[in-house]
Each structure stands twice: as structure tokens, then as C-alpha cells.
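Q: Could you write out the predicted structure for this multi-component system? I'm mainly interested in how the pieces pack against one another.
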Amino acid sequence: MTIKIGIDVGGTFTDFLLAEEGREPRIFKVLSTPSDPSIAVADGLREIAASYDPPLSVEDFAARVDTIVHGTTVTTNATLTNNGARTALLTTRGVRDALEMRRGIREEQYNNRYTNVPPLVPRHLRVGVGGRLDRNGREIDPFDGDAVEAAVVDFRREGVEAVAVCFMNAFANPAHEQGAAEVVRRLMPEAYLTVSTDLLPSIRFYDRVSTTVLNSYVGPKLSRYLDRLLARLGEVGFKGLLLIMQSNGGVMAPEVAREKAALTLLSGPAAAPAAGMATVQAHGQSKCLTVDMGGTSFDAALVDGSPVMVNEGEINRHRIALPMLGIHTIGSGGGSIGWIDEGGLLRMGPQSAGADPGPACYGKGGERPACTDANLVLGYLDPDFFAGGRIRLDAGAARRAIETHVARPLGLPVEEAAAGMYRIICNNMAQGVREITIKRGFDPREFPMVVAGGAGPLHSCQIANELDIPLQIVPRQSSIFCAAGMLMSDLKHDFVRTFVSPLDEADWARLEEIVGAMRRDGEALLAAERIPEDRRACHVKFDCRYLKQYHEVSFVVPEDAFARRDVAAIKAAFHAEHNRLYGYSLEDGGVPVEIINVRVQAVGTVDKPTFPVQPEAGPDASAAVKGERRLYVPERNAFATVPVYDGHALKHGNRVEGPAMIEQVTTAIFVSDSHACRIDAHGAFILERKPAATPSRRGAAAEEMPA
Amino acid sequence: MSPAIDPIMLSVYARTFKSITDEMSISVQKTTRSPILCEAKDFVTGLYDADGNMLEQTENLPILAFSLAPVCKYIIEYFGDDIHPGDVIFHNDVFSLGNQNNDVAVYKPIFHDGALVAWAAVKGHQADIGGNVPGGYNPNATEVWQEALRIPPVKVYEKGRLRRDVWDLIFANIRFDIVQHDMKAQMGACTVGERRLLELLEKYGRDHFEAHKAALFDATRRMMEAEIASIPNGTYGGEGYVYYDGRNPGSKYTIRVKIVVEDKAIRFDYSETDPQTDGFVNGTFTSSASATILTFLQMVNPDMPHNEGMVQPIEIVIPEGNILNAAYPKATTFGNHLCPPNADAIIRALAPVLPDRVTAGWNNLLCSLTTGIDPERGEKYVDIGFMGLKGGSGAMRGTDGYDHIGMIDASGGVLDQDYEMFEQQTPHLLIKHEYLPDSAGPGEWRGGLGVETVFRIGSDDTQFVTFGDGDFEPAFGLFGGGDGTLNLIELTYPDGTKVVPRNKDLLTGVPRGTIYHQLAGGGGGYGDPRRRDRETLRREVRDGVISPQAARDVYGLED
């Protein structure tokens, strides 16, 4: 018997998904313990052990657990709250301010009250030292080890915990960085050290210095957390493999995470695409969109055979240039507040009521109307059955908030104002989905949309209508989607080297040497993570551009093309990707193609849990009807009385025609007029757009809403 | 009968227009090849209605932004009924409402059900536009033909077919091939805008679109009117100064603005501004109007849709023949850079009545442009020194100026070159690029810091152009705040000779090994520096951006 557990630490709850061979997956939730999240992890294991019949001791249970996959937001929170380690930077003399300047950007051009983000390293701890390499990596000025020694002595005096080393042109020659690292290790062995060329040996100084500093800034926190977690797991007798979720959608051993802590910075929603992929694979598909709507944010990601990656992003306005999933996050959630701007237009968010005071209907003092208030007024939420009845909702408070802040200023009835709030937030989320599809050259109509998060399935039919998406899937474990995704994630390690050369004139011997070295590094990490050889694979990617373009396009180099040194095939793959992304290529113009970076991703495949199939029970869903409710039907722009189904009672093959509500303890699904729902063999809810549901809404606004 | 207005749909349209122009902007940034476009983002994308009214814009560099709608209207009038699906029109001509010769626009008409419904446009600063000097900045020019190829509205595509003869005529007069590719990228972005707008029209229909567009303009106009109404009625005057016209050493010109606020309308009247110059230090109507609008926008709620309604309550009067609106055929390439002194005049005029909304003076642009041949790679390069030119912004009540933000006409929208990419794209070696200590104008709220830039020139026979200002008069302080520091560019030749080029100059034959040294000054301070928060001040001393001496003497720090 093997047991795997996915553990996702959230702000309020820590979610556990237990996958045990031959049994239904089971969900556990315990309260999070923000001061030390590992406490909740141990609490959860105890609760799970106790749930067996007869109850097991936590030691007996833990000893049988094969793998724990763990997602942590320790590093994310440290960055968002400016609460990382006291960090110092060693860099080339003359460029120490690049980190704080952020290339001189002010994101809000017309807003003179918008200030720069505080740097992660204060200026007096950013030290420029002598030594200079040119753009080809040739030494112009020798490395000044004495200056580094002096700086390190000062760092010790200043109580510095972590050091980042990033020198100009180190991507072409790491010698000076290694020299500095040697001094730091010798004089300050206890410091957490990040060397830019170990973490990210690629061109672009600002990207590299920012990423390197982020790694040092969060590294000590993550290390200490992992120490505590491993100790607690050891105390309860866990002897299996612990894996940590990364921003690239893969997992890694704690030893790797310790050194490359920045790899976890955007890992919060990173398990969703793997969960989405597993969900659609059950339907024989390999593509999907995943959307996850929580209390304050809406995350959207794309899977096209594999999850779509990007090579750079931002956290709290700090640049991070590591491969990560292309997840787009916008400030739209159940807590998003509706407000009227100076021109009289209704807006939703990005301000959020959060969990405290929360939406007005929580009755905890919130006075401004949130998305959840609108959903309550529109009839999408049952005031007595929110979170399975754990939170009692105050419909009067919701109406009053909407009346005061939206309806009266717009001169609309409360219901119509609530409907407006609902439409605006659905439109915002549809625009968010555009960011990851159309703006990256994908057609959203080709992707089934996997919907997660407590509030997601209340809005997803309207997102689908807006973007013409024909099929949605709401997994049974929708509310703990990320914990499920963790169990579906493989080990992944990304490597990059800058190799600037025209593709036609590339030195293949050198190229093969570089790729070979990265493969060996990848294999070594996977071996250390106990992945057998037959489960390891390496994928090669190039970042190329047309000569003198500034931005590169990253694309997969076909395995055999690389082996055969087939430049024509590699070029064809580049032209195709450029055309897909930007609507044109310069294939016909004969413009030379340049390589900038070479990448390798090493993947170790792990066993995925399989879930049992339920017997077919026929289309009749009437046994699951638990009542009816009057609610707003957007396609009719009117209220109607619709049936309410108990989601837990719906069986494989059951069919529910929209408009209808399906309620579970943690999720409610609104099957809109334009949609119908059926239950699949794994208990997931499949929502299909009815053929008659045309996207055209011509004249819709002229219809009057019945008062 | 026009459809009823749905207040919710107004928000949907506003949000969607913005999303479209943003998407067009990403397309330009990712596909152009000149670093001026893809790195510095010196371009604007926009959508306009069938009459050329602005629907929305993404204004990476706002100084280009407010000529797009006037030119669109001009094009509509120019071609009359000769506008067809598949047409693509180029334009840069400053005597038909263009703002600057190098800023070349692509316009694409959008048709729905056979009728012209809208326009997509992208305007970007091209790496070259012909004329006497690569890159376009020719301080010796006295007429437009010495500066650039003029492109009045011209169809490069007609009904979907490339007019190869026209295309070749244009690009036969432009030095670098990348300009062709970049113009194609701008066309591609217009197509992106066209596709998305058509989706919207398919969904809601033309009548719905038109009715809601008009209502959206009204809502935005009311928003701007409310902002104007909050300024006391009256007439306010201010001045800004332009030093050196590129021809007559010691010359100085004054921009005089008279701002008349009457309830919900505001008029900027430049009738008393000095006459045009003999050289290229002249504005065009739209570059000057853009400067006025973008400065005023910084004094109102920044969260306002950018459409026709926003500019309707603003009237701008600039008689032809003055330095802000030169008469044909004067040279005008410097015109965009009259924005900082124009902004100074506006700020000085409104500071007494809007003390909580104005900033102190911003650092004025002083820029250099180097061209030559990379000796190691045998390739031509052009580099605009973006990283070096960006000084600090002025402080305002409650907020320090922004460090290293650059001129007010970009307001942080133009990025530094990445240092390592700079060394790949040019033969130069960067020696220093750091904050300049004590450059910030002191104040209770200090100005933004300027920067110091040093690099070693790596090409032989380098051509070197400077353009800008701010080396005679620093960014001014307000309400007891002090001035920022001055700009400077200085070259040290390998033989030790030091050369300080004038602020509009052209040097040739600059040798390899010359050391380039630039100071971009800080912004002006606001309020009495002795009232500055002590803890912040001590931190700044520790970080070395304010010297202990200045802290003691200027800020009165005692410990």
C-alpha cells in the first residue's frame, strides 16, 4: 500500500488531499498556523491518522506514507511583507543602484503620489568592488579580492544574514563571481549565499541582480522553515520523500529548495495546471485553461500539452527571471469591492474586503459592497448554507451596502445594480483569461476551462459566454484544487546558459558541451531525488530572436533536430513560434536568427494517483433536487425560479439543465441558462454550452428588467 | 432610434478599449527591433472612432500621444470617400499635425458591415527618418528637409495590396533596414487592434457601440469638468525658459502661458510666447499641445479613461510662428523636448492655486545619441543614452520626487537600457551608472535623485549628438524647497582634452577610448528642508544619497 499526500498551506486553512491506492481520495482541512505553518502540517497528519478505523497512531500512519508534496507561501509572504533576511549585495563597481532603480520605471505615469518600491537591500549594504569583464567575458580589470574582504567584514558587523553576488557580464565568465563567493564562504560561512551564475547564468544584468537578491532575501526564511518541517515530520515518524512545489509547476527535494529558494516565490497557484491537466486527461484531452477564483484574486493558467511557461515575471514589483508557469493573477475575488468612479462608471476591485471585515453580508463590520454581496442578492448563495452553513450571511446588510454605494449613485434598483456588479466582475475575469490566451497567441475556444475555487463556478458560465468557450469542467475537489495538483506534479529542474551566436554559425561542439553539462546537472539532481534512470528525461529549449531584435522567443527544440544538428528544422520551429505569438515571422526576408540562451529542463516522472470510476447512473438527476430558489439569469437579464441540486447526491451520468444551482459544502455551481451540466465517471461536473446559446447580445441592453 | 444606455455596459466598453490598446502595445514592444521602441517604449497605441475621436490610448511616451487623434481627423478629411478596407496609411508630417518627424504613425481603418467604424493607430519613434543626420537630430537644420523625409498621409497598402512603389520610395530615403521591419511591426499591432474591436462590434452591434461610445465620452468629460471646477476661477500666468537654439550662443527664449479657468473649462493660451527660432528648437502644434495635456493630467485624478471626453474641456491656443508652433518650413525636431520648459510654465502658473496638486520642477532632459561602427563586429549601431538622461522628478506636498524617472514627458515610461544588452548592442563599456548624491532639490519632501553615467566609447570616428536643456537652469523648488542640480555632458578624449558640447550639438570624429561623463540633475524640493523627517534623513545620509555636510548645512540635522 502506498500513500501520497498533497498539502497546500493557505491563509485560513491547510488543505490535505490523501491518495491511497484503491481508495477514494479524501480531503482534510485544518486551521493554518501562520507563525509556523509546519504545526498545521503535523496537526493534519494526526487528524488523518485518527480518521482510520480503527484509529492509527500518527507514527504508524506516517511510517506508511510514501510521499508528501508540500506547497508553501513562506517566501511569497516574506517578499510581500518586506520581511525577508537582512541581505547584502556584492556587485561590480559603478552599478550598485541598478537593483533599486529598476531601470527607471514608474508604473503609473500620471500619478505623482506613486512611489518606488523599497529595495530588498539598502544602499549601504550594496557594495561595488573592482574587477571587470567585457561582453565576451574577457578580463579588463582584475578581480579585487581585498575589496570583497573589506565588504564582508562590514557585512558581519551589520548583522547581515544573506549575501547576493552579481557581477557585470558574469553570464559570459563566472570567474570573478566565484572569487567573491570564495571570500564570503571563507569569512562568513554561516551566511546564506547566492551567486548569480549558479542561479541564473543568462544575460540581462537587471534581471539577474534582482533575481539573485530575491533568492538571498527569502533563502534563510525558507531554510529555517524546512528545518522545522523536516524535524516535525521526523518526530511523527515520516520516512518517505518530501517534495516542495516550485513556481514552474514541478516539485523538488528540500535540499534543492534550500539553495534556490526563489524557485518557490510564485508557487502558490503553480499546482493548478497539473490538476487541470489530470482533469482533462480523464476526458482524453491534453489542453485546458485553469481558472481559480478565491477571496481576493483570480488566477488563470494555460495547459497546451504541458503547462505554458514564461521566463520572467514580477513579485511585488521586483523582477524575477526564472522559468515559471504563465499564471496571470488579477484582483478579482469574492471580496472585490464595487465602487463608482468620478465619471460615474461602476468598477469592481482591485480593492478587496478580504476575510476581515469581509463582504457586508458577513456581518463583521464591512460596509462596502463586495462581489459576494452581489452574489447573495442575485440568489447565487444560500444565506443559510454558505461554507456548508458555517458562516451565516446577512442578506439585508448586502442589500444596504449595494443600495448605498452602487444602486443609488447609478439610479438603478438594487437587483439591477447587483447584476451590474456581477457582469463587470465576469468581464474583468474574461479579460484576465485573454491575457493568457489571446495575448500569447492561443485561441480560448480550443481549451476546455477547468474551474476551481469557492467562487469560480458561480461566474464561469459568463466567462465562457464572453470568450465562446464551449466546455467547462468543475472537479469534485474544486476547493482543494492545488493540493490535488501537487500529487500530479513531476520533478522539474530548469537550467539556462547564455550562448550568443548566429544560429547559422553556431559552434555545435560548444553547444553540445553546454547542453551536455546542463543535462548532467539535471540527471544528478534527479538521481539525488531517487528518480530511477528510466524515469528521467531532458528537454532542450532555445531562446532565439531575429538579428537585432531585443526580445527573445523561447521554443522547444525537437529532440532529433538537436541530435542531428539540423539548423533548418530548428529555424522552422522558431519561425512557427514567432508567428504564433506575434502574427508574423521574417522567414521570407532571410533575416538571420540569433541564439541568445540555451535551456534544459530535466524532468523526473512520478507515479500519479489514480481515482476510482463510479458506475453510470443514468441522466435522471431528480433524486438530488433539494429545493428551488429565485435567482438572476444573466442571459435573460431577469430573475427566475430555478431548481437547487445537492451536488453530493449527483451521480455519474446525471444531467442538469440550466438554469439551475448545484450546491456542495465548499463549492456552489451556477449552471446558467446557456449551459447544461452532466456528471462524469470521476464525479466532476461537466458544463457544456447549449448550441442555441449564441454569443450575440444585440439589443440585450434594451430589455427591461422586471422590477 | 438609438439604443438605451446601459450604465454597466459603459464600464465594459471602457475596460475593453483599454485592454485592446494594451494588447497592441505589447505586440509592438515584443516585435520591434530598434531599442528605442522595444526597450525604451517610445511609442503610443490607440483606437479612434469613425470621425477620428480618441476611444482609448496606451501612452508609453505621452508626448507622442495627443497628436494621433488630430492626425486621424486630418487623414479622414484628406482621403474623403477614398478610404477602403485593407488600406494602411503612414504619416509623420509635422505640417499636417504630426508632432515630430521621427515619430511615424501607421493608421488602419476598421470596417464593419461595409462601413468605416473606427481606426487603429500606432505611432513610434523610428531609428532613422532620412535627413542630414542618422537618427534625425540635426542641430544645424534650418528647414524641415534637412531633418527628415516628410510623409504626408500616404497609403502603403490600398485595399489590401502593398503599393510596392510607394513603400520603396519611402524606405529608399531611410538609412536603416530595421525601420522597415519596425513599421511592419506597427502595422501588425494595428491588425491586433482591428481584430479585437471587430469582435466587440460583432457582439453588440454598431448602434449599441456608437451610443455607448458617446455616453462614455460624456462620462469622461464630466469627470474632467469636475476636476477643472475644483480649481478657483481666474487667470494664472507662468513662464518657462529655453536656453540656446542650436545656432546663437547665449540665446534664451521664454514660454509664457496664460491659464484661464472658467467653471468647467480651462484654456491654455500661449499667445505671449516668444517667436520661433532659426534652428530646430521649435515646437509643432501637437507636440506642444501634448506637453500641455500631459502636464495637466498629472494634476488631476490619474484614474480616468483616456478618450475624447477627457480633452474636450481643454482648449489650447498657440498662434503659428511662435516657438511652440513653428511655421512652414521651419525645422522642428527638438519640439518634443520643449515639453519640460512648457511644463515649468504651467506648474509655476498653477502652484499658487493648486499647492497640493503640483510638483516642484522636474529635471529637464539632456540627451546624447551616439552612432558609429562596432569595430569588433563590423556593424553599425545607434544608441540613445536613455539611462544617462533620466534625472529626478519634482517633490509635492506629502511625497518625495521619484528618483531617476526622467523627463516629465515620459514620466517613468521610458526604460534604461539593460547594462549588459547595452554592451552587446554598442561597443561601449559602462563604467558607472549610479544615483548622484546631493542632486535632489532639498525640501521637507525632497526632489527625486539624478544619476551619474560614465562609459568608454568603443568606436572610432564616432558621431555624437546632444540635445536638451537643464544645464543653465536647474529644476526649481517650491514653497521653501530648494532647486535640483544641473545637467552636464562632458567628453574626455584619449589625449586628455576635455570637451563640453553645447546642449544642442553635433560632434564628429570622436575617437575610441573617449570617456563619456554625464550628470542628470535631481528634481526640485518642496517645503522647508529643516522640516524633513529626521529618521528618513539619517537613513539617506547612511545610504550616501545625502552627504553629512548637506544634511547639516541645508537640512539642519544636528546629530
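A: Regarding packing and overall arrangement: Chain B touches chain A through 96 residues (CB under 8 Å).
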